[in-house]
Design goal:
InterPro entries: MTA_SAH_Nsdase, Nucleoside_phosphorylase_d, Nucleoside_phosphorylase_sf. This is adenosylhomocysteine nucleosidase. This protein is of the alpha/beta class and about 270 residues long. It has one domain: Rossmann fold, CATH 3.40.50.1580. The protein has a five-stranded mixed barrel with strand order 5-9-8-6-10, surrounded by five helices. The longest helix has 21 residues. The radius of gyration is 17 Å and the shape is globular. About 50% of the residues are buried. Bound molecules: adenine. The site of adenine has 14 residues, from β5, β9, β10 and α6. The site of adenine (ADE) has 14 residues, from β5, β9, β10 and α6.
Length: about 270
């Protein structure tokens, strides 16, 4: 049964991924922090609108636990996961933004009992995101990327082909409990899931929980690295320099357009 709560949650894995947005929200007049399971859930209420923001930490268990707490204890009807990812497809470069249409756990393999990637007893490998939420996020991302292009803001050059980042992509995102940091591993992921755009460590777990509870879900990722031998260096640099600026600005636009929440986007991004 679909969940009809109109409260929305934002999750990131690491503080550096949304620190600008978190800083703004912590200072908001009606923000209240709740501690559960070692995580802080920041609740902001404005009129009938409610926003919950939290940090899941890294990996599928952390993400699924956090999503479940948001649904059970904070009664949210929509969850947006934001952060960074490694680019898989050749067309997806550092500084690009990917909005997931569907997510798959690349490390789920109960074959020969079930087809590779299929989550046993759920009868599916891929978990679709909510179209309306994803369209709204993609629209916010497109507006941010267009502003960034016109202002000539610092855009990180793409590791694989040297072009500048700033493209928006929609499609399949892979998740698994592994930081992908060599080209053979990147190619193996693509061979198993042709057309996959990016790889990260949480999104498919959140999408599975949302599917099971009838909660709307969307996942937005900025590409921090190319999931190859330079991934650790690229990830560390992007996380320190750029991740929060991009995610916070896109989320602020999204929240203000879709939910009438948060400060004007230009104050953040
Ligand atoms: N998140 C960001 N970069 C990643 C990578 N290369 N592998 C897994 N998760 C990531």
């Amino acid at each position: 049964m679909p969940n009809t709560s109109d409260a929305v949650a934002i999750i990131a894995a690491l503080p550096q991924e949304i620190s600008a947005l978190l800083g703004r929200l912590r200072a908001a007049e009606h923000a209240r922090a709740h501690l559960r399971g070692g995580r802080e859930y920041l609740v902001i209420e404005r009129g009938s609108r409610r926003l919950v923001v939290t940090l899941a930490r890294v990996g599928k268990v952390a993400a699924a636990t956090t999503a479940t707490a948001l649904i059970h204890q904070f009664d949210v009807g929509a969850i947006v996961f934001a952060g960074v990812a490694g680019g898989l497809a050749a067309s997806v470069g550092v500084g690009d933004v990917v909005v997931a249409d569907a997510l798959r756990q690349h490390d789920m393999d109960a074959s020969p009992l079930f087809p590779r990637f299929e989550v046993p007893l759920l009868g599916r490998a891929d978990f679709a995101t909510d179209v309306g939420l994803s369209d709204a996020l993609a629209d916010a991302a497109q507006r941010f990327l267009a502003d960034q292009a016109t202002t000539g803001a610092d855009v990180v050059p793409n590791g694989r082909d040297g072009r500048r980042g700033g493209q928006l992509h929609r499609g399949l995102v892979l998740s698994g409990d592994r930081f992908v940091a060599d080209d053979a591993a990147r190619r193996a992921l693509l061979a198993g899931s042709p057309g996959a755009l990016a790889v990260e460590m949480e999104g498919a777990a959140v999408a599975q929980v949302c599917h099971e509870y009838g909660v709307r879900c969307a996942v937005m990722r900025t590409i921090s690295d190319s999931a190859d031998a330079s991934a650790a260096e690229g990830f560390t640099h992007f996380l320190a320099e750029r991740a929060s600026v991009v995610s916070s600005a896109i989320l602020a636009r999204f929240l203000s357009t879709t939910y009438g929440l948060v400060t004007p986007p230009d104050e953040i991004g």
